[in-house]
Design a protein that fits this description.
There is one protein chain. By secondary structure, this protein is an alpha+beta fold. The chain contains three helices and ten strands. The chain has helices at about 80-100, 150-155, 155-170; strands at about 5-10, 45-50, 65-70, 70-80, 105-110, 135-140, 145-150, 175-180, 190-195, 200-204. Strands 1, 2, 3, 4, 5, 6, 7, 8, 9 and 10 form a ten-stranded mixed sheet that branches. Helix 1 (about 80-100) runs antiparallel to helix 3 (about 155-170). The protein is globular.
Length: about 200
């Protein structure tokens, strides 16, 4: 895989919008709004050079690296396609932060782009991670410093229930939602993706 070259850092702002963000259209080209990442207010990051791979099916034609969403920092900079970046932006802004009263300070993420088969199985169909259309969220860090993790807190206590409710509300914003109880591969994180070959959401 060739190493992506970085472009200038751009912040599109974190002010709340007066209307819901438009949902990403699967397979549509990334918008190039002036001063905005992926044409979405709320995303902070930078455009990258195309990501290519020797592995057929992997790569991102128009990647971005995201470091914050709606003012919520990511624990790691994530390389992804605009389709999943816009969906993550909508979910944080319209679901996650409202559920937690705006108290989420950081998304503790496990990753985004990775050229691999589904569920890390050799020879399996290329995961949406391999196309930059997926993101894994392992937990949340709040403004008061407390940590809420999928592995420990899923549907337990008030915070765990809010996290689980936020995950379920992601159905339709994301094309796929997988978490604890889905298939045995997502017991410690929330998996969100935006497949280009599915017309209706798959949520479990």
């Amino acid at each position: 895989m060739t190493r992506p070259a970085a472009a200038d850092v751009v912040s599109s702002g974190t002010a709340p919008q007066s209307s819901p963000l438009p949902r990403a259209r699967k397979g549509s080209p990334s918008p190039k709004a002036s001063g905005a990442i992926c044409g979405a207010a709320g995303l902070t990051g930078r455009h990258l050079a195309p990501v290519t791979s020797r592995q057929q099916g992997c790569g991102i034609a128009d990647p971005v690296q995201i470091v914050a969403v709606q003012g919520v920092k990511l624990s790691l900079p994530l390389t992804m396609d605009c389709s999943i970046a816009r969906a993550l932006n909508e979910w944080v802004g319209t679901v996650l932060q409202p559920n937690f009263g705006g108290q989420v300070r950081r998304l503790d993420v496990a990753g985004a782009y990775a050229c691999r088969g589904r569920n890390n199985i050799d020879g399996a169909k290329i995961s949406e991670h391999g196309k930059g259309r997926a993101v894994d969220v392992a937990g949340l860090t709040m403004t008061d410093g407390r940590s809420i993790t999928v592995a420990r807190d899923w549907n337990r206590g008030r915070d765990g229930q809010k996290m689980t409710q936020s995950y379920k509300a992601g159905c339709g914003i994301f094309g796929t939602t997988l978490g604890p109880g889905s298939d045995g591969y997502h017991e410690d994180h929330m998996h969100f993706d935006m497949p280009s070959d599915r017309r209706s959401p798959y949520c479990h």
